[in-house]
Design a protein that fits this description.
Dna Topoisomerase Vi A Subunit, Chain: A, domain 2; zinc; 5-stranded antiparallel beta sheet; DNA Primase, Chain A; 11% strand; 26 helices; single chain; magnesium; DNA_primase_core_N_sf; alpha+beta; 6-stranded mixed beta sheet; 17 strands; DNA primase DNAg catalytic core, N-terminal domain; 5 domains; DNA primase; transferase
């Protein structure tokens, strides 16, 4: 067994290594002044960069977790290498040949026993890539080549992404790698081979198109394999199993090619498949990456945040592309749940035709893929629209239930300054007043249970001190206190124009008592209305309104009644206009042309009526 590496060689490795280049493979670094650099620490989660690098001294230190050292120490910590493994990795990168204490002559790279497990597994995968890519040119790989060609990928694209083919043989790769000096245990540990029932070793992948999966440094550490033949009873996609170097929760396909553009543009596009990554890169979206056989999760976020330098000062963009089907929408909502882990803004891009980027490029060209990303919308907008689309917003129950389900999404927004705007937007989409939506969002933000009584003040009526409620109250006071003056003008406004439920009940009692036009006034009239009330709340309100002063200086006159009733109707009409606009937004004008134009015509009529009421109010609004 060879001894330790000579001290002067270690010193030379340190001297010839740019620590900024080594760390930049994993962490995006920005200038921190004085020649130093900073970024997000890869060893602990943080929102503000405390990881500092000094290129002049070739050292790094994190003020958040206290870790630090030189380039060798960084590789040891970041990639779980031994000291010797880290030095050998840096020496190979710098083109240096190491010497060991027992032999002063230049020596070749250490044999298998002298190398660490990680290098052996990486080397096995590198040899497997050579084997598989060579197989792609054989006659048996024709279905694999046709698969790529049918999706718009030529030979150059296949070579750029290292596409290969696992041949129709049980142990062709295994025999090839054993001849290259890799052991039985190494091939099993790497996930390239697996034991057969007979006890012999066979290839893990067979008769499949392969994509090599690389880590941030560009080393191949696994494969994704696509089924090609109908008689293959395996899954559509088969990935390398978990190994000492392949951790699917940390891996993003295409990250090795995309990382520099992600750091440069401050943007990453998360797609769903290997061909989608290829299509995006070739179409001019070089920041695309994809997960490898697992859902997008916390560990993926940590990787991207370091590349984006996702901090309060430098907020990047994370754009998810999902299919428009139910599975894609479900994935998008899962992504919104992870939104809070990013400092930057999250978006979603969905093709109008529900095509993935690969299909879109094939059908409409490169420009369509770039336009897909350019037309992105905030993820919260998509999530809200998806949630409220499940309810019938033409009914009170539907609007209230949709609001209760959508309010927690608004409450989750990490940027609190955006919450009031989204409260207004949600109220408009639902066709509701702002006040109940605001209360529901505040209840959700405070952590009160969604089904608890504290979270259910979400009624569609305005609050008692809102302008609409105040004018309803004034109209009822005129009916009770001045029935002769209010007369037909009051009776002409129906109970449907009142929004508050207790006001609606009193208005119904007025009608049940014979209407204002037939009332003589006085205590007899007030008692008649009180007796017609069906609940105690309405009866109590009649007593209040009978003695509460009108909101006018001096004596009321017909003009004041006219203004009050116009204001009452205007509030009701504008509420119906909001509801109708919300409904129109939900109608597809192509598929439901007649319904769309009927609703649009009704909207124009209501808006004309609202303008007339505004004029009638004579400046009282």
């Amino acid at each position: 067994m060879a001894g330790r590496i000579r001290d002067e060689d270690i010193a030379l490795v340190r001297e010839r290594t740019s620590i900024a280049e080594i760390i930049s493979d994993t962490v995006t670094l920005k200038s921190a002044g004085g020649g130093n650099l900073k970024g997000l620490c890869p060893f602990h989660d943080e929102k503000s960069p405390s990881f500092n690098v000094s290129p002049a001294r070739n050292v790094w230190y994190c003020f958040g977790c206290g870790a630090g050292g030189d380039a060798i120490k960084f590789l040891m910590d970041a990639e779980h290498l031994s000291f010797v493994e880290a030095v050998e990795r840096l020496a190979a990168r710098a083109g240096l040949q190491l010497r060991y204490v027992e032999d002063d002559r230049p020596a070749p790279r250490p044999n298998r026993a002298q190398q660490g497990q990680k290098q052996r597994l990486v080397a096995a995968h590198a040899a497997a890539v050579e084997f598989y890519t060579a197989q792609l040119a054989t006659a048996g790989a024709r279905p694999a080549r046709e698969f790529l060609a049918e999706r718009g990928f030529d030979r150059a694209a296949a070579e750029r992404y290292g596409c290969g083919f696992a041949p129709d043989g049980w142990d062709l790769l295994t025999k090839h790698l054993r001849q290259r000096g890799f052991s039985h245990d190494e091939l099993v540990t790497a996930g390239l081979s697996r034991p057969a029932r007979s006890g012999s070793l066979i290839d893990r992948f067979r008769r499949r198109l392969l994509w090599p999966i690389r880590d941030l440094t560009g080393d191949v550490i696994g494969f994704g394999a696509r089924k090609l033949f109908a008689d293959d009873d395996g899954p559509k996609y088969l990935n390398t199993p978990e190994t000492p170097i392949y951790k699917k929760s940390h891996l993003l396909y295409g990250i090795d090619q995309a990382k520099r553009e992600i750091a440069k543009q401050g943007r990453v596009v998360v797609v769903e498949g290997y061909t989608d990554v290829m299509a995006c890169h070739l179409a001019g979206v070089p920041t695309a990456v994809a997960t490898c056989g697992t859902a997008f999760g916390t560990d993926h976020i940590s990787v991207l945040r370091r590349l984006l330098l996702d901090t309060d000062a430098v907020a990047g963009e994370i754009i998810f592309t999902f299919d428009g089907d139910a599975a894609g929408q479900k994935a998008a909502l899962r992504a919104f749940d992870d939104d809070q882990r990013f400092v930057g803004r999250t978006f979603i891009a969905v093709s109008p035709d529900n095509m993935d980027p690969c299909e879109l490029r094939l059908a409409k060209g490169d420009l369509a893929v770039r336009d897909l990303v350019a037309r992105r919308e905030p993820l919260v907008d998509f999530a809200l629209r998806h949630v409220i689309s499940r309810y019938d917003l033409d009914t009170v129950d539907g609007r209230v239930e949709a609001m209760r389900r959508a309010a927690p999404l608004v409450a989750k927004l990490k940027d609190r300054e955006k919450r009031p705007e989204y409260v207004r937007k949600l109220a408009g989409d639902l066709g509701m007043e702002i006040e109940p939506v605001q209360r529901a969002v505040l209840a959700a933000a405070s952590g009160r249970p969604a089904d608890g009584p504290a979270a259910r003040p979400a009624r569609t009526e305005p609050s008692v001190d809102s302008p609409q409620s105040m004018v309803e109250r004034e109209a009822l006071k005129l009916a009770l206190q001045e029935p002769v003056l209010a007369g037909p003008m009051f009776d002409a406004v129906e109970a449907g124009d009142y929004r508050h439920p207790v006001h609606v009940a009193v208005r119904a009692a007025v009608a049940a008592a014979g209407g204002v036009a037939s009332a003589a006034g006085g205590a007899v009239w007030i008692e008649a209305v009180r007796d017609a009330c069906e609940d105690l709340a309405a009866q109590a309100l009649v007593g209040e309104l009978a003695v509460e002063p009108l909101r006018i200086d001096g004596e009321p006159d017909p003009r004041y009644v006219s203004i009050t009733m116009a204001r009452l109707q205007w509030g009701s009409v504008t509420a119906r206009i909001r509801e109708l606009k919300s409904r129109i937004q939900r109608i597809n004008p192509v598929n439901n042309k007649d319904e769309y134009f009927a609703a649009f015509g009704e909207l124009l009529s209501l808006e004309q009526h609202a303008r007339a009421l505004r004029e009638q109010a004579a400046g009282g609004l």
